[in-house]
């Protein structure tokens, strides 16, 4: 942790070498979150880059009270929400990942890789959930990504979203309801199993 | 009349009683529903383990007597499990940090309020560049669509120079992760790769394929030889979106308002191949004549090829630190590397990387790797891949022949990707047969 503090202090003095080291320490975590939020690699790359640029310019305001990683996550989340709001003004995005009958390309090597047959069986449900996650609102998606995909505690989420624990709890509940509803509608054929054009 | 009255009275009484019963049943039902609703409102914190002891017991008691709520909870749990199944850890592309720094170097220094203001200004000024990037990306995807190619191929087109190698790598990860050690990934023939791609949890190979080979790994740049080089010389028949589809393109580099090299391009193989193969993501997707092109397959020597592969599993205290040390070691021993996976499951994290080193340096490198932590296991296998190599080479040649007589652009496009992937696979095998493969599995 001392190393991180030192690097932050040097970066605050506009030492780009130190900031580069800092990026390297956190880039995978930030990139992972960006990938989960945006749903595709290209946008994740743009977002992650913006996060670090913003972080660099915001370092003067970083007092070390929060964990640096949490702080970066907060920037990522805010930046993503902003970009979503801008994007929603446009009619739709072609940047969303495309789906084929073979399914969207899977995101990651599974943490514990199941055997191929079992994996095949799981694929459809998981794919549907992945699509549904893309189709619900940004706020709902965000809180689910932080909780379910990143395993963050309510406290961590509250810190990132800058809200109370009660808000986290109710937002998660609503997000899960929204996701379930989305999946039910997909199952009943009311909705396409492809990501909505947003 | 009297009887009739009593009868009527009796009937009325029964009627009143039945209404009363009905009302009671309805009330009970409502109470139950309210209880169900209240219990279901607790499903979310239940899943997160955030219920108090009393709430938990109350929910459990209700569930014991309410099949409907049990079914509902099961649905919630399944969705939650699926969500967690999407859990992932993605590595930032090689050169990402350098890309950010390059961008920052062109911008004013951050200092207090002035810096913050500059940051705001920056966001505005980079909009134009972003617009172009987005356009390039859209062009890429649109093209892939126009060609009638699915996302797999779309992604493939975006970064395909290393896709095959990643497919092989992903296969390796499956084997490794399921603890059945093997270097069978060397044997995964061409027909297997697409199948692998469809397996959940692995298809991130297409994500990962965005990642260029690590520095020092020349295989990624090999697209400049053989078919790819030939194709690169004729972009008219190769309307590949290149890295434009990934937003990591040469067109991005030229976007105004974006100072410095694009992030993640760096010195990467993907960057090179993107430039060599197709700088034109928005190129013609129509019927393009391909008759003028006659591609020659790259020549591979016919010889015996044996791959020696060692899996070293190391338990480390700090995965990030170990990863950095590993990278230093790799450089010191002149080995090339390729990240196979970076996985996290909440409890532990693992980082799996394939190193290819000169035979004379192998032993020393493995010894040095032992210093990263505690070596849990180390297994070496030797496999003769000669037959498999020949088979793949044959398929590669056949694909080129097919390509030379392809009737339409879409078909040609697919064949180009296939041939290039096969060539890369052959290149990798060829290289690895002369060297030593060390798969390092760091468990944090």
Describe this structure in words.
The complex is a heterodimer of chains A (198) and B (444). Chain A is an all-alpha fold and 198 residues long. Helices cover 69% and strands 0% of the residues of chain A. Chain A is built from eight helices and no strands. In chain A, helix 2 (16-38) packs across helix 3, helix 3 (41-58) crosses helix 4 (68-89) and helix 4 crosses helix 7 (154-161). The termini of chain A are far apart. With 444 residues, chain B is of the alpha+beta class. Chain B has helices at 2-40, 43-47, 53-65, 67-85, 96-105, 112-125, 127-146, 151-159, 163-177, 192-197, 205-208, 226-232, 250-253, 269-277, 319-332, 359-369, 386-404, 409-434, and strands at 306-315, 336-344, 349-357, 374-384, 436-443. In chain B, strands 2-3-5-1-4 form a five-stranded mixed β-sheet, with helices on both faces. The chains are: A mainly alpha (198), B alpha+beta (444). At the A-B interface, helix 2, helix 3, helix 5, helix 6 and helix 8 of A face helix 2, helix 4, helix 5, helix 6 and helix 7 of B.
Biggest sheet of chain B, in brief? 5 strands, mixed
Distance between the termini of chain A: 41 Å
Overall shape of chain A: elongated
**How many angstroms does the end-to-end distance of chain B come to?**
94 Å
- Most extensive interface: A-B, 78 and 87 residues
Radius of gyration of chain A: 18 Å
**Structural class, from helix and strand content of chain A?**
mainly alpha
Low-confidence stretches of chain B: 111-293
List the secondary-structure elements of chain B in sequence, H or E: HHHHHHHHHHHHHHEHEEHEHHE
